[in-house]
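Help! Submission page says 'invalid entity' but I think these are all valid:
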Amino acid sequence: MKCKRCRKTEAAVDLPSHNSAFCPECFFLFFRRQVEEGIRKFRLLSAGDRVLVCVSGGKDSLVLWDILMELGYRTEGLHIDLGIDGYSDRSREKVLAYAAARGKEPIVVDLRSEGVPIPEAAKSARKEECAVCGTVKRYFFNRVAAEGGFTAVATGHNLDDEAARLLGNLLHWDEDHLSRQHPLLPEVEGGLVRKVKPLWRVSEMETAAYGFLKGIDYVTEECPMSEDATSLVYKEALSLIEEKMPGTRRKFYQGFLKNRDKNRDVLENSAPGVCVTCGAPTYAAVCSFCRLKERVTKTRGRS
Amino acid sequence: MIRVRMPQKKRELEVPGPRRVADILAAAGVRPTMVIVTRGKQLLTKDQRVEDGETIDILSVVSGG
């Protein structure tokens, strides 16, 4: 199959959802345009931003950092070492190697040093590891960004992640989560830094293909804590539909974004309070991170 | 035979060649939208033909959590 853009070179990436196939060079152009359009559409970033890019060591976050640098944004990487034996060490190594090759030194937060390694925190809280991991990561993303004077926090969530999350939120009619699901969560007075997802238009397969063709050395193994993650069930279901009806996943998520903007003022008018324990912005009296940390401390005290 | 490696699943199989990538994925029971297929440093499309004696890797692109 020839590249459908240049019509000269053999295609390396076929994209049934776009009814297209590209050679590596044309695919880079396609990918870059998708990310640029994603940023432009919701004004996720501007040239003056200082962007904190959250990098796990996986394909999405390293590709995100790579393309934001290529697009000329001022970026720094933030890696959170989750404290998962073996896996976290290998992930950290990938991030440090990627950054070093580009003359960067990422900020590293080690959850063991912070007293909340994910396996122990999940056990103490009696919650799923992925839920606890999300709480802890969001806390540090915002804290590091606020303390470091960053104007935006960027994460590598892609179209598949967002479509799967949307499906989950809809299946459970989780209105609170639905109201907050968007590639842009604006800065909120009181300490919440703007959060953006510049890869929201590109699929997981496209991100992986981009990373592979660019020679980005990312962690290919799955997080051992995520084996039973519900998001994987939603992704599998959407994949089945996507294979039969290419482009459905994109229409599903983009259709949601188009309609949910009607309710956007609900989100933009809700300002957080301040956590009585640590002072971080929160919609509760004590933020979810401090509640989690207290549980870990109590559990340690009992054992 | 074509050697098919799936490093994340720690699984490996052999299928007779030549065969299209799409057919190899079906034989391996893998959803085409959830993987990329590589031959050395080359990325393969689903219609490409793999010859006897060649080795390919099927890499999952799905991350959970």
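Support: the input was valid. A stray whitespace character was the problem, and the output above is from the cleaned input. The CA atoms of residues 29 and 41 of chain B lie 24 Å apart.
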